[in-house]
Every structure is written in C-alpha cells, then in structure tokens.
Write a structure and sequence with these properties.
- The complex is a heterodimer of chains A (450) and B (189).
- Chain A is built from 13 helices and 16 strands.
- Chain A is an alpha/beta fold.
- In chain A, helix 11 runs parallel beside helix 12.
- The radius of gyration of chain A is 24 Å and the shape is globular.
- With 189 residues, chain B is mainly alpha-helical.
- Chain B is globular, with a radius of gyration of 19 Å.
- Chain B has 11 helices and 2 strands; from the N terminus they run H-H-H-E-E-H-H-H-H-H-H-H-H.
- A two-stranded antiparallel ribbon of chain B has the order 1-2.
- Helix content of chain B is 49%, strand content 2%.
- Chains A and B meet through helix 6, helix 7 and helix 8 of A and helix 4, helix 5, helix 6, helix 9 and helix 10 of B.
Amino acid sequence: MSTFLNFEAQRPRISRREAVRRALLAAGGLVLAKHLSFRAFAAEPSAQAKAVIQIWMWGGPSHIDVFDPKPDAGYDYCGPLKSPIETNVSGIRIGELMPLLAKQADKYSIIRSMTHDNNGHETASYIVQTGRQPGGRLVYPCVGAVVSKTKGYDAGYKGLIPPYVVLTEPQGRFDEAGFLGSRFRPFSTGGNPAQTPFAVEGVVAPGITEAHQKDRRELMHHLDSFAQAMPQDPQVVAATQAENMAYDMILGDGAKVFDLSQEKPELRERYGKSKFGQSCLVARRLVEHGVPYVTINYGGWDTHKENFQVMRRQLPEMDKGFATLLQDLAERGLLSSTIVWWGGEFGRTPKVQWEAPWNGGRGHWGKVFSEVVAGGGFKGGQVIGASDARGEEVKDHPVYPIDVIGSIYTQLGISHQTKLPNPEGADTYVMPRPEEGIKSTGLLKEIMPA
Amino acid sequence: LNSHTYQLASIPAGNNAEAAANFGSYPLRRLDAEVLIDALDQITGTNESYSSAIPEPYTFVPDNLRSIALPDGSISSPFLDLFGRPPCDTGLESERNDHITAAQKLYLLNSSQMQRKIEQCRMIGYQSSSNRPPADIAMGIYLGVLSRYPTAEEVAIVQDYFKSGISKRQGVVDITWALINSTEFLYRH
C-alpha cells in the first residue's frame, strides 16, 4: 500500500487553560535556561546543513568495484575491473567506471571502513538507516523520519511539499517511520521523472490534462451548493482556503517544483536522462525549495549474478547523476548547506563467485563496505578508515552506522539529546545511550568542522 | 436519527442571529475521518486497508468492517491519519482534529487512491450506459453521493457539462468527483 501525503501537522487545538499553562512553563524555562545556557551552548551542534539528499543504493553496492578498489588483489577479486582511476585529489583512486565522480573527489569523503557484520537485506537496511540493532521492543525511525520530526511541520516547516520525500518508490521491507508513526513516513512521489509528465502522486494525475483539471474544478464550483449559499461560513472559508492551496500544488507553484521542463535541456542531459539522473535533478529542486530530507531510492545493486555486466550497465548512469548533482549543488552554492549521503545496506563479497549459477556474481558482505558523504559542512577529498588488502575486513578505524548518522545529525543541528516520543512512555533519544550497547567509534571528527 | 435538529437543513433560511443561537439550522462540520472513509467506501464499493504499529496480535480487519467500528486505536490507515482521527493516547476529545487541510484536499481532489476508488465505483458503469439521458444520470449520482435529488438548476449544469464534448464515462466520473469534493458532501452527509 502506498502512503500518501502525511503532511501538515494534525495538532489538537490548544485551550486557553493549556495556553496559560504553557506560558507559565516557558517563563519558568527561561530562568532554567539561564542556568543551563553555558553548558547547552558548549554541547549545541552547529547547524551548518539544512538538508540531506540520501542516495540509497538498495541491494548493497559492490564496494570493491566502486569506492574501494583493490587492483592488487587479483582477478578473483576485481574481475575485469582492475584499473582504478586517479581522482582530482592526489592519492585517492576510485573504480574505473566513474570518470565523472573522479573529477569531483574534492567535494566528497569516502568511508572505506563501514561495518555492521550483518548480511540480511532487511536487518542491514534497518541498522544502516536507524543506527540501532533490530529485535528490541521498539522499531526505530530512520534518519529521514527523525529529520521530518525535528525539522518538519512540528518545527515550523510551512512548505506544502512534505518535509521527507522519497523519489520515487518507498523502500519497502522497511518501515521508515518506526514508532514515530505514519505521519513521519516519507511522501513517495511515484511516477518517473525521466518521463514527461513526471506523474507525482496527488500533484500530477496521469491522464488528466491541465485544461481538464480546470474544467472539472469549475464544474465542482458550479455544483457546490453550500459554498454558493453561504460563502461567509467559517467552515466554508476554511475549505476554500484549503482547496486553493491544493490547487497551488496541482496547477501552480508546487507542480512547478516537479516540472523538469523548467530546467535547461543541457543540464538535464548532464544529469543523464535515466530515472536516477533525473531523480537527482528533482532532489536538487526540492532542496532548493526548502525540503529538508530527500531520499533517492536507487535499486538494482543486489548483483548476485553477473556483477560486472551490471556494473558496466549501471555505474555510468550513477556516475553521471551523482557527479552532476555534486557539481550543480556546488555551482548554486547549495552544497555547503546540503549533505549528500551515498550508501546501501552492505557491500558485496570481495571474492568473485565465478561458478554457475552466479557467473561472476557477488554475495552480501556486511563485514566491511563503503559510504560517501559530501557537503553540509563535511570536508571533501578525504578517506576515512581502510579495508584490508582484499576488501574483506576492516583494517583501520571501523565506522559503525550510528557514527555516520550521529555526524549527520550534528551537522543538521539536531542535538543527540533530542527526545523522541516513545510509545511506551520511556525516554528515547535520537542517539543511543551507552546502556543500549550500540557499537560506535564516535563522530567522523576528521571531516567535521572543529 | 429521529432528532428534529439533525434533520434540519444546513443552509439557513435567513440571516437571523436568534435562529442561529437556537440551532435554527444544522451547523456545518466536517465529517469525522472514520465517517468520511466509510462513506467513500460505501459509495464506491471499495475497501480501505488498515495496519497497526503493534505487531501482534496480527491486524485482521474484514472487508465489511466499517472504520467507525475498528476495535483498537492503534489500528489505522494513512487516510485516517491524514484526516485527523485521534490516536487514542488519551480520552480527550481534543485529540480529534476535524480541521480541513490542504493535504486532505489534495488527497480528495487529485490522488491516485481517490481516482482509483471513483474509477472502480460500480455506479459509474451503470450511469454511463449508452441510452441514459443526462437528467437521469444527474439524479442517479446525486442520490448515490448526496442522498438527495438534484435541483432543476443542478440538472441543467450537468446537462451542460455533457454538451461540452466530453465522453459519457468521463463526464460521469467528473460529476461524481465534483460531488465528493463539494462542501455539501464533506461537511454534512
């Protein structure tokens, strides 16, 4: 079942008594704040980033073929992809099928020592995107849902486009919002941005032209007995207001954000006319519009069979979209406030399975894999950690999923002490407490501002 | 409902403050989330699917169970959440939110879910059968959606709409859509 537009806060009206109570609490809070202010300031994370674009490599991309090449490991490990290329940062080499990303390496940092040691798609997706271990009493929300909670409608976000958008399909097999509930699930656009029109759920109805939309709106107005008889009624006024805002999405500004014909054809071409490439472009437009979290759900990386054929087919497409996104964000001055986070649930078996039925495939590998972060205050041109000579184990500086997530929160200005509304009433925080026993080696200090 | 007050019209007869104070007409209020989805499902002959955040016991909601009869506050659907059904965390009435929002309007006006519901509606096929005159179509859809007969003026608007060269089926879909999106439907049914 697809979710639809869980946007706009459903807040109960506040009674006068409640308002007085809150005002009193706030006054008391001011006094308290004075006492705490020194400490709070010291711990307060800098809010350099305003938005996140998450490129979710569903299936688990092969770390050896992409950002962690091991040309010396031999044919049984690299297959035909044995000549990694130099990037514009000396000393960093990446997979040979990504020439465009090689020219942008100064903008991103590669974490080559990601680890969680889990080889199941569902559990690994959960661990990588929530930072928690599955199996406890609670299903935790992923980063997007936490950002939606802390930067969305509850935090004064006013946009008509929901604060957490997925291009184009929800992840499935994974409940993004966890215990936060369906209001914090992402709005999944549906449709395909590489097609015209990009049929965004609720915004662009396929098969209904703009003229037809206008005609039937007029029909609705003609038949709307209540609105005609009592236009002054407060309920009718509210309904008319809501309707006008909805049509701003359908026929006005909202629809324009998703309308890629507003972009220069050359730029669209640079992103690549693939679903992924054009999704990157839509993501940039959404971020430009103030949407704080966009996930591009990019499937097809579960390369059990014929891994190298898939790499040759898909990596150029990824290269084009990802590299152009970084370049475009930088050119518009958006990269400093936008985190781009690339990664999947795990890496892939370093030793190639040449035998049938895999015919040169790679299995799941959670022992070590790579992620990439860029922008939003993260330094570029760095490599964090290392895997061993064959890309099988972490050799240096293990990085756990919660470390990346915590660093992203810090850059967004989300304090690790931010409480989440726990359904059982217990205290739950965006970052795990020590007693939860989640493995961590701390924030990515090397690439964060001091 | 045999209450006289409940049977009053919503459109007031005049601008009379005393009449308003004494419930001389039925004050407008948006249908509750559960009532609204039940009405939509009944009109279109479709079902909503529900889920619960609590994994066990497994959520099973039979197709013919109305939303107003859901046994447990944890069982919900995106529609119910969107339209302000209370989460039942407390017993307070203020948990319910019947304020109309742009997101709700967007759902009703233009979502694929609504489009699918209307397209699947059995009434559409019958009303768009070839020899049915527009006046009868108007009557059928009005009875189906608003449970009342159309006025002469409304019949004329429907007849005009069919003259605009639109296909019969599309016309029937549009009129059903327009009535479902009218304040009359959303605010009192």
